[in-house]
Every structure is written in C-alpha cells, then in structure tokens.
Specification:
The complex is a heterotrimer of chains A (261), B (214) and C (218). Chain A has 261 residues and is α/β, with parallel strands linked by helices. Helix content of chain A is 35%, strand content 24%. In chain A, strands 6-7-8-3-9-10 form a 6-stranded mixed sheet, with helices on both faces. In chain A, a hairpin with a 2-residue loop joins strand 9 and strand 10. In chain A, helix 3 packs across helix 4 and helix 5 runs parallel beside helix 6. Chain C is mainly α and 218 residues long. Helices cover 83% and strands 0% of the residues of chain C. In chain C, helix 3 crosses helix 4 and helix 6 runs antiparallel to helix 8. Classes of the chains: A alpha/beta (261), B mainly alpha (214), C mainly alpha (218).
Chain lengths: 261, 214, 218
C-alpha cells in the first residue's frame, strides 16, 4: 500500500454535486490526512452528509474526483471515458472505507452477529468460524455481549446503532464515516453510542469523518472541525479555534443557534 | 351419483397438477423477468412480454397456444399448451410483484450493502431478496388461488380437469345442479386450502425478524 | 406458415361486430357488479351477525370458485328453475355476480381508508349521518376506490371471452366460428389479441394515472 506520509487518506479535487437546482457541493477541494479525525458541522442542507455519501459512492459525483489513499474511488459524470472507473476497481478501493448511517440500515432478517460477519465472509472471503469469533469480539467491544443472536427489531435504537458500528468495523476499514449517527436516537440513548465512538477514536488510528450536531462531542473527539454552508467550507481548523473562537460570523450564529456547550 | 366420485377425484387431481405446474412456471418467469428488468438491455423485451400477456385475455392465450402454435410447427399436448399459457400469463403479473417488492425494500439497505463493498448481485441475493420475498408471499398467494380457478379454462381445450368432469356429468345426467354443485364445492375447498397454506407460509417466513408477523 | 392478410381484412369486421357484444357484456357486467357490490357491502357491514356472517360466506364461496363454472351453472340451472335469459343476459349476470364480490371489498377498503378521526370530527360538528357520508366520507373514499374499480373493469373486460363458452357471439365467439370454417387460426387469434391490447393498454395507462393522482393525495 502507498502509505506515504504525504498521501492523504481522502483527497477531494474540485468536487461538485447538485440535486436538481440545489447545489450541495460547489467546487470543493480538500485533503484529509491519514489518521485525522474531522468533525463536519453545518446547518442541514449544507452538503455535509452528501460529502460522506460521495466518498462511499452512494451518490454520483457531478464533477471532480475523489481519491482514497491515492487511488481513485469516484469521478464526475463529465470525466473522460479513460478515467471512468470500473465497478470492480471502485469496490477494491471502497474496502478501505466503512460507514455508519443515521438510520442504522441494519439487515432486519439477520441477527446482530450475522449482520457483522456477512460482509467479512461474503466479500472478504473469510472463514465463517474465524469471522464469527472476530465478530463476537467486536460486539463485545461495543458493549453488546449477549446480544449476538438478537434480530435488530429486538434491540433498542442505541443498541442497533452499536451493531451498525460493529458491522462497519468488522471490515477493518482504514477510514470510517459517521453520518449523524445519533440523530435518529432518543436523547437518553445518544450517550452510549457516542461513548463507543469516543473509545474508538482513542484506541485506533483510523481516519474518521464525523457529521454531527453534537458540538461537545465534536470538540472532544476531533482534531479538526470543518464548518460548511451551501456546499462550501466556511471555516476549518482546530476545534478550540472553530468552536471556541470562530472567525466567521456565520459559524458564530450557527453555534449560538445550536445552544451553549 | 356416487359412481361419479372417482371421476371427480381424477378431475381434482388434474386440476391440482395443472395448478402446480403452471404456478411453478409462473414463479420462475416472475423472478427471471422481475430481476431481469433491472438490466437495461433486457428491460424493453420484458416490458413487451408483460404488456402483451397482461393486456389480453387468458382464454385467448390458451387458444393461441393450442390452435396457433401447431401451425408454426410447435405441437404441444393440451395440458402442456394450457399450462404454458397460464404460466406465462400469471408470470406477467408475478413479475410486477417481484419488481414492486424489490423496490419496496428501503434504499438504506442498498446503501448499507454498498458501504460493505458487496457486489450488486450479492447484495440482491443476500440482503434485498430475503426481505422482498417476505413481501411477495401474500400477493403470490393470491396469484396461486386465482391461477387454480383459472385452470378451469383448460377444460375448453379438452384437459380432463374438474370443470371437464362437470361437463361430462351434465351431459350424462342432464342436471346442472348435480353436475356443478359438487364441482364448485371441490374448487372452493381447494381454494380455501391454498389460502390457508399460503397464510401459514407467510407466518413462518420472517418469523423473528419481520414486524408484520408479530 | 403464410399469413393471409386478405383474409385478416375480411374477418376483421366480423370480429369488430363481436367486439360490440364484448363491450355490452363488460358495461352490463360492471353496472351490475357496482350495484350488487353496494348491496353486499351494506349487508357485510350489518351489525347483525345473522346477516353479516352468511353474506361473508356467500362472498367467499363465489370468490373461491371459477367464473367459468359459475357461468355454466347459471346457463344450465336458470332454465331448470324456469328463468329464461338469453345467453348474453346470463353472461352479464354471471360477470356481475362474480365481480360484485370483489367490488364489495373495494367499497369496504374505501370506507375503511377514511380515518376514524374524520367520523369523530363529523360527530363533533353535529353533522347528520347522511351529511357525514355525503360530505365527508364518500368524497375521500372515492379517491381510493376509483383506481381499484378501474382495475376490475379492465380485468372483467379481459374475461368476457369466457362468454363464448355459453354460445355468446362476442369477439372470441365470433373468431372461433370464423376460424372453424377457414382454419385461419393465426390470423383470427392474432387480431383478437391485438384488439384486446388496443383497448386494455390505454385503459391500464388511465388507471395508473389515477393511482398516481391518488398517491399524491394520500
């Protein structure tokens, strides 16, 4: 692998994306260094979720390119045929990236453990017993020992989201994308999920992008904060600067609106 | 009247046979067309098939298979001609069920599969289909009962099913009540049985994970 | 096999004359089904179980047996009982009866699609029972019901060829008797199929349009 110090984990080059008339990403360029934890903040509709979905290739880029560890994962519709990526190529690169969704998106017909080992077995070709052992260990790590055989609908929202985190971790990605992972949860369940992520940030070297509305959490976990609006970066920098002493008025008013932290 | 009982049972057996055979064909066609419609190149052909078979009458299709196919050199026995026509007719409806059920699986499920680097067909087979199948069972149950009733049309091309035996009873006994009351009761009993059966299957599939079965 | 276009042209008017009967059967059958369905749904919703249960049983039985058998039954039994109907009349009766059992369910679904709160609000506003139905429930139910009725109309249209089996000279009957002497089954059945397509494709598109409108309001 080309793990040079200077090759960024993710590189956005002149990325644009619009849904109909609404521009959600406007000529966006940005490097995410390896191991960096970035909290992405901004009002809804500012393009932060789309950013993650583009990296995950769930949304198609209109223009620009995205590279993961120096290898292309997405290219705009207008890219010349030679630069267009095959499905297989994209899948290769995508293995380095895991994602946790706002709505969990667990597979309802599988138990917690089955959810976790499905992709390692079917995609990575791991042996089932080996994957299961690893899966149990990850479920323990997110505090779900004893829930291995429960179907998602028997679990609380917080437990479901922790299974979803375990599922993503089981693929051993080098980059994790967290898309408003606590927004669909009842307030009393938010803590347990954030705790798992905090723990993860502390004990691993993964690169993380976190779209969140939890300002306090963002301050604790991230070493860079990106504040976005209308598909553009308003300001970015260390959390103590952006959150503690924002340079831009729009950042300030946003922080005021979401409340004191 | 009692001397007709064995004949009626023979007719019932033929009805059952025709039902099973044409349902098997219909399900096969439904999945091939329903899943195949996801491929852009095949879509127009499948579309034409579905519109033609849904847009015309089942009886006309049966006659077409029985009278016209021999003219182009395809000789089929009445049962095979009838079963093929019915299977393709109901397959056209079934393919819409398959397509609809696949589309009804939440988008997030596809997205999660992408995020886990699953190839498309793996995602369809392991993630989407198991959930879609659960949704398909009730409408396919309706198709099964409908199909069973529609097999009565095969008597028009001399397949010896329950309806056919009814006609024979009428011709030799001369009483329509005597001829068709038992036939109707047998059809009804069969329909009830099939309805109950699919309901059971519906409960078994998805037990433990599906909201709908609690 | 050679296609005889000249024969096809000659037999077309015969089939189209049959199509007129096909239309009569469809419209007559649907009209009867709409009315009978209404009767059934009223009986079905009766609070008296001595009425609602037997009604349910009758509906289940009619739905659980083939239209073809019902057609034969009526065709041969009605005369035995001294009721003389011409073949087309019997056909319309059978179609109407058979489909009324489905249409009763359509009505029921339509009524039940109106949320409880609408009834409660009407009561709270002291509407009369008649006004509640006329001004509140039916206008909402109609939106649900219309596309479903459209579907059954198209379905019934496609089942009219069954009337050929009781000597009605509708499209298929006309085609069968023409083909019996000419042996031009290909031309005859292909034309019949095309005529059906020409009718049911636009009808189906119309129903889908209604469904789309329906979804927008749902």
């Amino acid at each position: 692998m080309n793990d040079h110090r200077d090759v960024p984990a993710i590189r956005f080059t002149r990325c644009s994306k619009a849904f109909g008339e609404t521009v959600v990403l406007d000529d966006f360029s940005w490097d995410v260094p390896v191991g960096r934890r970035v909290a992405i903040l901004g009002p809804s509709g500012s393009g932060k979720t789309t950013l993650l979905r583009l990296v995950m290739t769930i949304e198609q880029l209109d223009a620009g390119t995205i590279d993961v560890f120096g290898r292309p994962i997405a290219a705009g519709r207008d890219a010349p045929a030679a630069e267009r990526l095959s499905e297989r190529q994209v899948r290769e690169v995508r293995r380095d990236v895991g994602m946790v969704f706002q709505q969990f998106n667990l597979f309802p017909h599988m138990t917690a453990l089955e959810n976790v080992i499905e992709a390692p077995v079917r995609v990575l070709g791991k042996h089932k017993s080996e994957a299961a052992e690893h899966g149990r260990q990850i479920l323990r790590q997110v505090g779900l020992q004893g829930k291995e055989d429960a179907h998602p609908r028997k679990l609380s929202g917080g437990q479901q989201q922790r299974v979803a985190i375990a599922r993503a971790l089981a693929m051993e990605p080098r980059i994790m994308l967290f898309d408003e992972v606590t927004s669909a949860l009842d307030p009393e369940l938010v803590g347990e999920v954030l705790e798992v992520i905090r723990d993860l940030a502390e004990h691993s070297s993964m690169t993380m992008l976190l779209v969140t509305h939890e300002i306090g959490f963002a301050r604790d976990v991230s070493d860079e904060v990106l504040f976005m609006e209308h598909g553009r970066v308003v300001e970015s920098g260390p959390p103590e600067d952006v959150l503690g002493n924002p340079a831009e008025e729009r950042t300030r008013s946003f922080l005021r609106a979401v409340g004191p932290h | 009247m009692t001397q007709w009982i064995p004949r009626l049972l023979d007719g019932l057996a033929m009805t059952a046979q025709a039902t099973i055979a044409s349902f098997a064909l219909a399900v096969l066609v439904s999945f091939v067309v329903g899943l195949g419609s996801r491929m852009r190149t095949l879509r127009p052909f499948f579309r034409i098939y579905v519109e033609v078979f849904r847009g015309t009458s089942a009886l006309v299709q049966i006659f077409y298979f029985f009278y016209v196919l021999p003219l182009v050199g395809v000789q089929l026995s009445p049962l095979v001609a009838g079963v093929s026509a019915l299977g393709l007719n109901f397959g056209a409806y079934g393919s819409e069920i398959v397509r609809g059920a696949m589309e009804a699986v939440p988008r997030g499920q596809y997205e999660a599969s992408v995020a886990l680097s699953m190839p498309r067909w793996l995602a369809i087979r392991r993630v989407i289909l198991p959930q879609a199948v659960r949704t398909m069972i009730p409408p396919f149950g309706n198709i099964l009962v409908d199909l069973m009733k529609t097999t009565a049309l095969l008597s028009m091309i001399s397949v010896g099913d329950l309806a056919f035996v009814g006609k024979q009873v009428l011709q030799s006994e001369g009483s329509a009540v005597m001829a068709y009351l038992p036939v109707m009761v047998l059809y009804f009993a069969f329909a009830v049985l099939l309805g109950r059966g699919t309901h059971r299957i519906e409960q078994l599939v998805g037990r433990g994970w599906s909201e709908a079965t609690t | 096999m050679r296609v005889d276009y000249e024969y096809a042209l000659r037999v077309l008017p015969v089939l189209l004359r049959g199509a007129v009967t096909t239309f009569q059967a469809t419209i007559g059958g649907m009209a009867l089904a709409l009315v009978l369905g209404l009767v059934f749904v009223v009986l079905l919703r009766s609070k008296n179980v001595l009425i609602s249960y037997p009604t349910r049983a009758v509906l289940e039985f009619v739905r659980g047996t083939p239209l073809l058998i019902q057609l034969f039954f009526l065709f041969y039994v009605l005369p035995e009982w001294g009721i003389r109907l011409e073949a087309l009349g019997t056909g319309i009766f059978a179609l109407g009866l058979h489909y009324s059992t489905y249409i009763a369910e359509v009505y029921r679904a339509g009524i039940e699609s109106v949320p409880r709160g609408q009834w409660e609000a009407s009561t709270a506003l002291s509407f009369s029972k008649l006004d509640t139905w006329r001004r509140i429930v039916l206008p909402q139910a109609v939106i649900t019901v219309l596309p479903m009725l459209g579907n059954y109309l198209v379905a019934m249209f496609k089942e009219t060829p069954l009337l050929a089996t009781i000597t009605v000279i509708e499209m298929l009957g006309a085609g069968l008797s023409a083909a019996a002497s000419s042996y031009r089954y290909f031309e005859v059945f292909t034309l019949i199929g095309l005529i059906f397509l020409a009718m049911s494709l636009p009808a189906g598109a119309l129903v889908r349009k209604f469904e789309a409108i329906n979804k927008r309001y749902a």
